[in-house]
């Protein structure tokens, strides 16, 4: 299988620009991504008081994407399922899949209890997890059957006709983000976050768990090889020095956007239950993210991990950890195409089959993102697509 390339996006605020301008320019980027040969576009879901997502209703923006593209696949990564009613979601998924000619990809997740609190839901992590699993089973059942029968703690449906069905059979491909065990257990593709330092162990673990729960050689429900990828925040320029100079302030802006407004809102309201790790607690039923030290795959990469990665690969453009009060672990790589190819050599060696880019983050401009896309798609992507194809036929 050839290495495929995707894009993960928040659609963050851009200083001095209106919402319409931001949306219009992002759609222009998506046309560029399609012409460059990217496989899929993955859009995050976040709500107020977060400020790092200007597309909280992903389906509205993705409907526009369906009309501006013809081959690029796209979808949420993720739908925060506890915040959605399953019937409405079934209907909108079906609409998007047909509007796009069967190009929808479905990322799903629990989200955080902090946003659930602001939606008027119970912020107990176990209740939140139950909502997630019930909604997931409901939408999978409803998308794949002519009528929905489901009985749970929050939702009950008897012989409810499913008037709208997706174009893809039995439903669009599912993705789970940040936990390889959960993804493998539920038969989903996966995108994780962190540094390259622990990624190879994640790839190995994902395939072991997939074989254990799905069976050796088993494909996804859509008949494809399961994909595993890592989010890579990239900035490309003609030289390493130029890329590093532009990326450093943008990375600081990204880190602030991702975590600080939510933390400040919790402090302003005296919501002590959400301080620190309380903003994103984990349910008891969730598989652990951490392995023993010899197989370490901590998804919230520490600054030490990223610095070690830089020393090992010789990258001048690696930026620090994205750890924030929101508990997100992302890394950024800034450099020339030659530097990014050094990084890509290590990435390919992990055995992963999906490379996930993020091109516009923090306060990077549309022009900077488009330059990165151009350099990456012309001077990096073709080399690795060819290498993977050659390996497959060898």
What does this structure look like?
The strands form two sheets. Strands 1, 2, 3, 4, 5, 8, 9, 10, 11 and 12 form a ten-stranded parallel sheet that branches. A two-stranded antiparallel ribbon has the order 6-7. It has a single domain, classed as Luciferase-like domain (TIM Barrel). Helix 1 packs across helix 2 (58-68). The chain is built from twelve helices and twelve strands. The protein has helices at residues 19-36, 58-68, 86-99, 113-118, 125-144, 180-185, 199-214, 240-269, 303-313, 337-349, 366-379, 381-393; strands at 4-9, 40-43, 73-76, 79-80, 106-109, 147-151, 156-161, 174-177, 189-192, 228-236, 332-335, 354-358. The two termini are 12 Å apart.
Helix and strand topology:
Elements: E1 4-9, H1 19-36, E2 40-43, H2 58-68, E3 73-76, E4 79-80, H3 86-99, E5 106-109, H4 113-118, H5 125-144, E6 147-151, E7 156-161, E8 174-177, H6 180-185, E9 189-192, H7 199-214, E10 228-236, H8 240-269, H9 303-313, E11 332-335, H10 337-349, E12 354-358, H11 366-379, H12 381-393
Parallel strand pairs: 1-2, 1-12, 2-3, 4-5, 5-8, 8-9, 9-10, 10-11, 10-12
Antiparallel strand pairs: 6-7
């Amino acid at each position: 299988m050839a290495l495929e390339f995707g894009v993960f996006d928040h659609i963050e605020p851009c200083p001095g620009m209106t919402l319409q301008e931001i949306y219009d320019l992002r759609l222009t980027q998506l046309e560029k991504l399609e012409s460059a040969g990217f496989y899929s576009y993955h859009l995050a879901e976040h709500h107020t008081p977060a400020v790092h997502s200007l597309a909280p209703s992903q389906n509205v923006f993705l409907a526009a994407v369906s009309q501006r593209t013809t081959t690029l696949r796209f979808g949420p990564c993720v739908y925060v399922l506890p915040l959605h009613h399953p019937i409405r979601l079934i209907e909108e998924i079906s609409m998007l899949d047909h509007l796009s000619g069967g190009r929808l990809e479905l990322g799903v997740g629990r989200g955080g209890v902090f946003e659930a609190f602001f939606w008027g839901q119970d912020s107990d992590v176990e209740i939140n997890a139950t909502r997630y699993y019930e909604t997931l089973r409901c939408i999978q059942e409803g998308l794949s059957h002519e009528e929905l029968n489901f009985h749970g703690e929050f939702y009950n449906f008897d012989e409810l006709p499913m008037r709208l069905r997706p174009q893809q059979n039995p439903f669009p491909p599912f993705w789970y983000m940040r936990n390889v065990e959960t993804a493998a257990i539920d038969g989903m593709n996966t995108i994780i976050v962190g540094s390259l330092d622990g990624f190879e162990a994640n790839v190995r673990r994902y395939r072991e768990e997939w074989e254990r729960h799905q069976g050796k050689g088993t494909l996804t429900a859509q008949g494809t090889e399961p994909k595993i990828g890592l989010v890579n925040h990239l900035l490309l320029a003609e030289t390493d020095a130029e890329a590093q100079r532009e990326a450093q302030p943008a990375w600081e802006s990204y880190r602030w956007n991702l975590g600080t407004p939510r933390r400040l809102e919790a402090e302003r309201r005296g919501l002590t239950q959400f301080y620190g790790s309380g903003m994103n607690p984990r349910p008891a039923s969730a598989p652990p993210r951490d392995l023993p030290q010899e197989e370490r795959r901590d998804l919230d990469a520490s600054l030490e991990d990223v610095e070690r990665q830089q020393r090992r690969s010789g990258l001048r453009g690696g930026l620090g950890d994205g750890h924030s009060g929101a508990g997100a672990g992302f890394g950024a790589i800034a450099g020339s195409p030659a530097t990014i190819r050094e990084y890509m050599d290590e990435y390919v060696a992990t055995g992963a089959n999906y490379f996930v880019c993020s091109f516009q983050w923090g306060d990077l401009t549309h022009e900077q993102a488009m330059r990165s896309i151009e350099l990456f798609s012309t001077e990096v992507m073709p080399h690795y697509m060819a290498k993977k194809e050659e390996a497959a036929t060898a």
